[in-house]
């Protein structure tokens, strides 16, 4: 028969949980449950190897032959004397006291007895539990790049339409247009003088 002890390690009492900011309490009053699994006999090399490679996920799919429970003492130890050899699933539940933070141990599979020194079996087994790691929520990424400036609008200026009731301003005259107006005015003036001279001649001849 195998004497198995599960020990909950002591945590610094000044250490606090990063999520709840509660202080750690003692290692007592942890409930330890051990399930002896229905596996191939471990008294063969192949059977022991298969049991030793058994994961927690696959162990939970197997049938349970026997189940044992115990509570840790002030030193964090839960004792299970007189166990049958085989593969065992170990599950630890922390106390339900909400005033303190009790870290939860990881579930594990152990094959008892264990191999000892000088190729002898160890029937007095002490296992130190490991706690589940903290999983903190990820910090969202804050963008640091400045957004690009919007492109400048592209448009061609257009002449404003005159307001209703207002006359449009006259367009600027070019040099050719001004010269044409001057020549036209000269022709009109010259024609006027010619008509005036002819009229005077007719008037003189009539006397």
How would you characterize this protein structure?
It comes from Corynebacterium silvaticum. The protein has 207 residues and is α+β, with helices and mostly antiparallel strands. It folds into two domains: 127 residues, Immunoglobulins (Immunoglobulin-like), CATH 2.60.40.10; 32 residues. 21% of the residues lie in helices and 24% in strands. The chain contains three helices and nine strands. The chain is rod-shaped and about 170 Å long.
Chain-wise SSE layout:
Elements: E1 2-7, E2 31-37, H1 45-52, H2 56-59, E3 64-71, E4 77-83, E5 86-93, E6 108-112, E7 114-115, E8 121-122, E9 124-128, H3 175-205
Parallel strand pairs: 1-9
Antiparallel strand pairs: 1-4, 2-3, 2-5, 5-6, 7-8
Task: Indicate the percent of residues in helices.
Answer: 10-25%
Q: How many alpha or pi helices? A: 3
Kindly, what is the distance between the CA atoms of the first and last residues, rounded to a whole number of angstroms?
172 Å
CATH class assignment of the largest domain: Mainly Beta
